[in-house]
Design a protein that fits this description.
four-stranded antiparallel sheet, elongated, 225 residues, 25% strand, three-stranded antiparallel sheet
Length: 225
Amino acid sequence: LVNGASGISAGYATEIPPHNIEEIIKGVIKRIDKPNCTVDDILNIVKGPDFPTGAIVQGKDGIKDAFEKGKGRIIIKSKAEIIDQQIIVTEIPYEVNKAVLVRKIDELRLAKKVDGILEVRDETSKEGLRIVIDIKKGFEGEAILNFLHKKTDLTKSFNYNMVAINQKRPELLGILSIFDAYIYHQKEVVTNRSNFDLKKAQRRLHIVEGIIKMMDILDAVIETI
C-alpha cells in the first residue's frame, strides 16, 4: 500500500497505487485497537492514494469501492493555473512521462487541433516541475486547458486492482483484508523472534545455573582443576 505495486502474471494482474505512509500506519493502529472498524472509519484516516508526482485525485466513490472490494476507478488531474495568458502546470498524473506530454501538447498546436496556443515549453528545474503554455491574446485559457485535459494525459484515469498473495493464494483484497493480513504477519514475525530469543536465553540459562552451582563449591572445583 505504501510503495504501490503493478504487475501481470498468468491469469492475474495487480494495480495498487502508493499511499501515504503516515496514514497507513495510523490506519493499521486503528484496526488493531478496533478490530470491528469499518471502511468508513479507515477513510477518515486514509483519504486515498498519495502519488509522488502530486496532482489532484478525483472520485471518492472509486476510492471507497477500492477500499471495500479491491477494485475502483479514480481520475488523476494535473495541477494547473492560468496566470497572465499562460497555463502553468506544476503537478502531473502518476506514471505520465513529462517529455511525452509536452510533445503531445505541441503536436496538437502544430496540427491546429486547438487554437490559441502560442508555445509550450518545459521549464522544470531543481525548484520543481513546471510546464508553461503561452496563450495568444484574445483566447480563453480556461477553454484551452479544458481541451487539453480531455485530449492529453493532463488528466488520466487509474483503476485499482488490489490483487495480492494472501495465505499463499492470490486474492482480490480490500484495505481491511490487507490490514488484517499485515497484522497477522507481524504477529507471526514477533512470535517467531520472541521464541528465538527465548531459546537462546534458555541455552544461556543452563550455563549460568552451572556457574552458580560451581560457586557454592568453589574450593572443590579449584582442587579438582
